[in-house]
Write a structure and sequence with these properties.
The complex is a heterodimer of chains A (288) and B (584). Chain A has two domains: 195 residues, Cytochrome Bc1 Complex, Chain D, domain 2, CATH 1.10.760; 83 residues, Cytochrome c-like domain (Cytochrome Bc1 Complex, Chain D, domain 2, Orthogonal Bundle). Helix content of chain A is 35%, strand content 0%. Chain A has ten helices and no strands. In chain A, α3 crosses α6 and α5 runs antiparallel to α6. Chain B has one domain: Quinoprotein alcohol dehydrogenase-like superfamily (Methanol Dehydrogenase, Chain A), CATH 2.140.10.10. Chain B has six helices and 39 strands. In chain B, the strands form ten sheets. Chain B has a five-stranded mixed sheet, with no helix packed on it. Chain B has a four-stranded antiparallel sheet with strand order 2-39-38-37, with no helix packed on it. Chain B has a four-stranded antiparallel sheet with strand order 3-4-5-6, with no helix packed on it. The N terminus of chain B is likely disordered. The chains are: A mainly alpha (288), B mainly beta (584). At the A-B interface, α4 of A face α3 of B.
Chain lengths: 288, 584
């Protein structure tokens, strides 16, 4: 984290804040940025003190971070896939029900409930062993996770846990996740990894862009920009002339891959629809 | 109560050499009481006739709310307690009323360890040797503390958290070598074991549990596994060099035979839990290994569950004893494996002598005595391509958890162990290794096994492969066991009862509600007044803290729904951290 002692003088700060207000994790402009702030700024990002105490009642100045994907079901769905492929469920439990890491499905947030506070938790990590994921999935991927976590429906009865029969206490909803539409009557963790993504949309109805966002590819790839993985135009340039490139890329996307473009692994995507995947790869290979 | 003549005697003994005083039965100087790991004490003052008079004589809140696994030590009228993270070490003066502290040691342990440790911030205890208390900090360091003053003598950085390694296990000291190993089977570590110099903490040797012979310290001429032939067994039993991220942690217990000069320890599960990513037997995960303590040379190894499909770590204690098999007395090693079988092996060679199920088992039809291998039910194999495999018993908590070590009485010739009676469904999925994050790939809900009780405390005759008595418990039993020459046995329950039972019949003699679930191991010792006492920790944790996370009360930001399989447990316990001493 940027130490607070590096806060800049006020006037410059005001200018920077104005500049920062326009910096978002917009795919178009900053899709490649691994830092959530403008490169020229050294103001710590995402400082919201509503839940903190201010000495003297004076709120320190800080930059603002904007979630450009807020009411976006596709972003939340992509985040759900990332939650598994980035091993979040290994510490937080399936659908964030809690395991070694705290529950993310109880409407309670140790480090703050604002989008940017959750963003910081994932991007930079937190004490007691929450790793920083910003270097692996970038801002884009982190916003998808933020939107997924915000989309998880919280139970109504969080404060009270009761074992006695009373009419006042509604039954606890099981650990389920509304975005997947699972009935989730089983207490046990839903197997998010085996749920299928959207199936076989008619080709005329969607374009590459929609599919890439829906299936979470944009967490790590831009069309023209490297994010974590290579830009799709670079992939096209490398494989376009090769025989069997389409099947090879379909396979490596489904099984996962490592070491071709760098050391960060591409996680497996076993639940992707084959038809959609072939379509996506064909489209990518045709990029010039 | 201080008795002057006893102090004189102790001082004389101390003068004669700390080893003598340390080894007296009034003390408890190492986690399992002795090198054979029997957890048996010759103290007989407490017996089946008077145990109903057992009552609490002292308590102390550790100030920490993680799972209190492990056990205290008592040496030279001092009780040593290691807490869960942040691993404070307390030294209590048993010669003074109220047992005030002599000192406490407060290491600076990284809080990141809490998140890298898969299964709660537990610690499995310390080891006393040569006037030093040796134990592990959760963040990958081993420390040696002066037992008289509490000053740190050395610390050694042995494990790397960035790789997913942590160190909750209790070190084992033999022949001036401190032996330690990492946890991290859920993080795809490359599991190892190390021997450190007792006086300096310098690494004397390091051996991996998987990989090339040179790394595993399997040398031609000295390595003689009983059932497997050939070189590079621990490398070639992994497709795609999976051993590099293959797990094989050392999170359990170690025992030692001074005549054979062998240490015995079990290794944990292979990584990831999806077996289709690591074809092959995956040696030597889920195995018992016999090594020379002075240089780590591997002498023999035996794999209980090859190509693990179910997370059956083999890190349970290996208890060393003599047993008559087919009329002949054999030096054996007895263990209660997570996979539901109790194994008896010849500890000189690794030959399998007996294997009997001690809990319901569905994944295998038995153990083939000729090859030592399980006869696996092919419909119970798991993998990402297999969808959900149902009705697997035992669950991945095991027929007993290795965190709950058994005890052996040479008087009754019975073994005493907690058990867990649960089954699971298992759905594997493909996962990618991302250093420092979980490398698992499974969804495995649990439910109770046949009978409805989730656990028991069992007295088992290993010579005949049969239970002798069994005390059913509503919840899994997760404490270690203790048995004494007074023919009484002790254990604790997840719903917070500490129980004393007749070691021959299982009859309940006394019990006390100790304030939180018991996941630690009881010990017994002689106080300065010459009387026998029993000590145990209360403080639910380990996997039961994760699964029944609703027992948490200290964090408003973590409010979980109860887990269905133990949905009433939260009525009886929350987290805790109390040291109890009971006496007559």
């Amino acid at each position: 984290m940027v130490p607070r002692s590096e806060l800049m003088p006020l006037a410059l700060l005001a200018a920077l804040i104005a500049a920062l207000m326009t910096v978002s994790c917009d795919r178009g402009r900053n899709a490649g940025a691994l830092s959530p702030t403008n490169e020229q700024s050294s103001v710590p990002p995402s400082i919201r003190y509503e839940d903190h105490l201010w000495a003297g009642g004076i709120e320190p100045l800080g930059g603002e971070l904007h979630n450009s994907h807020t009411v976006d079901a596709e972003s939340a769905k992509a985040g759900k896939r990332l939650f598994t492929s980035m091993n979040c469920d290994g510490c937080h439990g399936d659908a964030g029900s809690g395991w070694v890491g705290p529950s993310l499905a109880d409407g309670r947030w140790r480090y703050g409930a604002r989008d940017e506070e959750i963003f910081n938790s994932i991007f930079y990590g937190r004490p007691k062993g929450m790793p920083a994921y910003g270097g692996v999935i970038g801002s884009e991927g982190v916003w998808m996770l933020v939107n997924y976590l915000k989309s998880i429906r919280k139970p109504d009865t969080v404060p009270t846990q009761s074992w006695i029969e009373t009419s006042a206490v509604a039954p606890q909803p099981a650990r389920n996740d509304e975005t997947s539409g699972d009935a989730g009557s089983s207490d046990t963790r839903t197997a998010a990894t085996v749920s299928k993504s959207g199936m076989g949309l008619a080709r005329g109805e969607v374009n590459l862009d929609t599919l890439l966002r829906r299936d979470g590819c944009t967490a790590c790839h831009g069309i023209d920009r490297k994010v974590v993985g290579p830009a799709f135009r670079d992939v096209a340039a490398k494989y376009r002339q090769q025989n069997g490139a389409e099947q090879r890329l379909v396979n490596s996307t489904k099984k996962g891959s490592e070491g071709v473009w760098g050391s960060t692994p591409m996680p497996p995507n076993p639940a992707m629809d084959d038809q959609d995947l072939h379509f996506i790869v064909k489209q990518i290979l045709s990029l010039k | 109560m201080i008795r002057p003549h006893y102090i004189l005697v102790s001082t004389l003994l101390f003068g004669l050499g700390t080893i003598q005083a340390a080894e007296s039965d009034g003390n408890w100087t190492m986690p399992a009481k002795d090198y054979a790991a029997t957890r048996y004490s010759a103290l007989a003052e407490i017996n089946a006739n008077n145990a109903r008079g057992l009552h609490p004589v002292w308590t102390f809140s550790t100030g920490v709310l993680g799972g209190h696994e492990g056990q205290p030590l008592v040496v030279n009228n001092t009780m040593y307690v290691v807490t869960p993270w942040p691993n404070t070490l307390y030294a209590f003066d048993l010669t003074q009323q109220g047992y005030p502290l002599k000192w406490k040691y407060r290491p600076d342990v990284s809080p990141n360890a809490i998140g890298v440790a898969c299964c709660d911030s537990i610690n499995r205890g310390a080891f006393y040797a040569e006037s030093k208390i040796i134990y592990n900090l959760l963040d990958g360091r081993t420390v040696a503390i002066d037992a008289a003053t509490g000053k740190e003598i050395w610390q050694a950085h042995v494990a790397n958290m960035a790789e997913g390694e942590t160190t909750p296990m209790a070190p084992f000291v033999v022949k001036n070598v401190v032996i330690v190993g990492p946890s991290g089977g859920e993080f795809g570590i490359h599991g190892w074991i190390k021997g450190l110099d007792l006086n300096t903490g310098k690494v004397l040797w390091q051996a991996y549990n998987m990989g090339a012979d040179a790394d595993v310290l399997a040398k031609p001429g000295s390595f003689r596994p009983y059932y497997d032939k050939g070189a590079e067994l621990a490398r070639d039993s992994w497709a795609h060099d999976g051993w590099r991220t293959g797990g094989g942690p050392v999170w359990g217990w170690i025992s030692y035979d001074p005549q054979l000069d062998l240490i015995y320890y079990g290794t944990g599960n292979p990584a990831p839990y999806n077996p289709e990513q690591r074809e092959g037997d995956n040696k030597w995960t889920n195995s018992v290994l016999a090594r020379r303590p002075s240089d780590g040379t591997l002498i023999w190894a035996f794999q209980f569950t090859p190509h693990d499909n179910w997370d059956y770590d083999a890190t349970a204690v290996m208890i060393l004893t003599e047993m008559k098999i087919a009329g002949r007395s054999r030096k054996v090693l007895v263990t209660f494996n997570k996979n539901g079988y109790q194994y008896t092996l010849d500890r000189a060679t690794g030959e399998l002598l007996a294997a009997k199920a001690f809990v319901p088992v569905t994944w295998a039809q038995g153990i083939d005595m000729k090859s030592g291998r399980p006869i696996v039910d092919p419909t119970k194999l798991t993998g990402a391509s297999k969808g959900t495999v149902k009705n697997l018993c035992p669950s991945l908590e095991g027929g007993v958890s290795p965190a709950s070590p058994a005890a052996y009485s040479p008087r009754t010739k019975l073994f005493y162990t907690s058990t867990t009676n649960m089954c699971m469904d298992y759905t594997a999925s493909p996962v990618r290794h991302l250093k420092g994050t979980p490398f698992i790939g499974v969804n495995a809900p649990y439910y109770s096994g046949p009978g409805g009780n989730l656990g028991s405390f069992l007295a088992w005759d290993a010579a005949r492969g049969k239970p002798v008595w069994e005390l059913k418990e509503p919840y899994p039993a997760w404490s270690g066991a203790l048995v004494t020459a007074g023919d009484v046995a002790f254990y604790g329950t997840l719903d917070g009862w500490f129980k004393t039972v007749d070691a021959r019949t299982g009859k309940l003699l006394s019990r006390f509600k100790v304030g939180s679930g018991v996941v630690g191991n009881p010990i017994t010792f002689q106080g300065p007044d010459g009387k026998q006492y029993v000590a145990v920790y209360a403080g639910i944790g380990g996997d039961w803290f994760l699964i029944a996370g609703d027992v948490r009360s200290d964090d408003p930001a973590d409010v979980r729904a109860p887990a269905e399989v133990v949905k009433t447990l939260g009525r009886y316990t929350s987290q805790g951290g109390i040291v109890w001493i009971f006496g007559l």
